[in-house]
């Protein structure tokens, strides 16, 4: 390294590291609570190593220990390696996704886990940081605001390839996370029209599931007709474009049924139906969300207390130490504890944006915004699905949910960013 260890240590963003450590610690406490059994001894007392390894809370300690080693390695490695080998990381992860697709054993209908002896790893988790590095490297060499369509097509292809492979392995939730990259692209000059069009398309697709098709088409036609009448002089010159937009919207409305019935898996259709109508399948697909909301609501203002959650104790919520860890927070720590966790996430996100903005290279800034966007997407969707505001798509709460792949993935994302940031004053503006 080009600077002394002491100077490098001072350059690290210890505020972010402190927030990370606090969140990992709180996450472990809640994993312990979620996997705690009233009949089992507390902590390590009277248990063999084999018995301890049957507990998620003990395995999470091991994952946290390996994450500490990993973070040290990440900040010690020359920060230029992340730029230089960005495409290599990307190629390796794409290869892992392909291997997983063909050789992985189906688990809960998904081929997304590689089993290496007793260890299971999910390559989809690592595809996030590899894709973030690759697109940041690519965008460092172009001006997205003024670039030609070929470069934009390459960027779109780099972003879409991993999620397409992930979808092929039937892991839709992890694939959706890659939509978060649009926020980073918007910061680097992508036209806001793209975000507006995508948001409008999402609203239309949701409305097509909620109200009769003909009513929706009639309403859209009236809106476009009203715009045409108000701006008739301008719109007369854009009539072909307006008719094309109308035709595309009508096609989307009628295409919803095909997508819903022919593309989505049965369990995915059920999850959307339950989101629209929570009482549609209360004892089936809707069970998780219903019990999660009961757990969170029963916590009240201050919560029932650590290890005192009845919903948690008696395993009413499946996957409570992973995807539904937030309902443990709500039940045992109450509204106040939930607010503390949300404030911690908001503090982390604000810090990530701050760190991204102070980078002197396009590569560093773009990567920083990719990291912030991924954390935000996971946080918003995970909390949303535990309280019934988002469909259950099976993505973890960063640094809180149990799982080695998840913890490693977010640790790698964050500490590559901190390693780049520590040397930001040595970067040449690209």
TrEMBL record:
Keyword flag Cell cycle: no
Intracellular or extracellular location(s): Membrane
Transmembrane segments: 12-37, 57-77, 84-104, 164-186, 193-211, 217-234, 241-260, 333-354, 366-393, 399-420
Membrane topology: Multi-pass membrane protein
Main location: membrane
Organism superkingdom: Bacteria
Keyword terms: Cell membrane, Cell shape, Cell wall biogenesis/degradation, Glycosyltransferase, Membrane, Peptidoglycan synthesis, Transferase, Transmembrane, Transmembrane helix
GO biological process: cell division; cell wall organization; peptidoglycan biosynthetic process; regulation of cell shape
One GO molecular-function entry: lipid-linked peptidoglycan transporter activity
GO cellular-component term (any): plasma membrane
Keyword Mitochondrion among UniProt keywords: no
InterPro entries in the record: Cell_cycle_FtsW-rel_CS (IPR018365), FtsW/RodA (IPR001182), RodA/MrdB (IPR011923)
Protein name as catalogued: Cell wall polymerase
The organism's taxonomic lineage, starting at the top: Bacteria, Pseudomonadati, Bacteroidota, Cytophagia, Cytophagales
């Amino acid at each position: 390294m080009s600077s002394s260890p002491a100077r490098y240590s001072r350059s690290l963003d210890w505020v972010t590291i402190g927030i990370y450590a606090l969140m990992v610690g709180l996450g472990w406490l809640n994993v312990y609570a979620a996997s705690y059994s009233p009949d089992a001894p507390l902590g390590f007392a009277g248990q063999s190593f084999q018995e301890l390894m049957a507990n998620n809370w003990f395995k999470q300690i091991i994952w946290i220990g390996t994450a500490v080693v990993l973070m040290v390695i990440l900040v010690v490695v020359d920060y230029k390696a992340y730029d230089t080998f960005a495409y290599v990381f990307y190629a390796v992860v794409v290869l892992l996704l392909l291997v997983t697709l063909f050789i992985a054993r189906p688990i809960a209908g998904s081929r997304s886990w590689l089993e290496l002896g007793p260890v299971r790893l999910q390559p989809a988790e690592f595809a996030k940081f590899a894709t973030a590095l690759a697109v940041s490297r690519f965008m460092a060499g172009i001006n997205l605001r003024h670039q030609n369509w070929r470069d934009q097509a390459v960027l779109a292809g780099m972003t879409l390839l991993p999620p397409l492979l992930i979808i092929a392995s039937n892991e839709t939730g992890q694939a959706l996370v890659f939509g978060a990259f649009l926020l980073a692209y918007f910061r680097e000059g992508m036209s806001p029209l793209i975000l507006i069009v995508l948001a409008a398309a999402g609203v239309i697709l949701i409305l097509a599931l909620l109200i009769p098709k003909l009513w929706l088409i009639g309403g859209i036609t009236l809106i476009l007709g009203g715009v045409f009448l108000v701006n008739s002089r301008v719109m007369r010159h854009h009539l072909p474009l307006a008719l094309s937009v109308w035709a595309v919207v009508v096609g989307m409305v009628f295409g919803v049924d095909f997508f819903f019935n022919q593309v989505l898996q049965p369990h995915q259709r059920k999850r959307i139906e339950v989101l629209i109508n929570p009482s549609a399948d209360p004892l089936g697909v809707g069970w998780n969300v219903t019990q999660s909301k009961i757990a969170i609501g029963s916590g009240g203002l201050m919560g029932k207390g650590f290890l005192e959650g009845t919903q948690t104790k008696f395993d009413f919520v499946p996957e409570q130490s992973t995807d539904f860890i937030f309902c443990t927070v709500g039940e045992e720590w109450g509204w106040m504890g939930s607010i503390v966790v949300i404030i911690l996430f908001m503090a982390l996100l604000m810090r990530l944006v701050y760190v991204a903005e102070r980078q002197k290279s396009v590569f560093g800034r773009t990567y920083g915004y990719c990291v912030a966007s991924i954390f935000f997407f996971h946080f918003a969707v995970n909390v949303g699905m535990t309280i019934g505001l988002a469909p259950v798509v099976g993505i973890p709460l960063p640094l809180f949910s149990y799982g080695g792949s998840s913890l490693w993935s977010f640790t790698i994302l964050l500490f590559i960013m901190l390693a780049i940031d520590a040397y930001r004053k040595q970067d040449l503006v690209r």
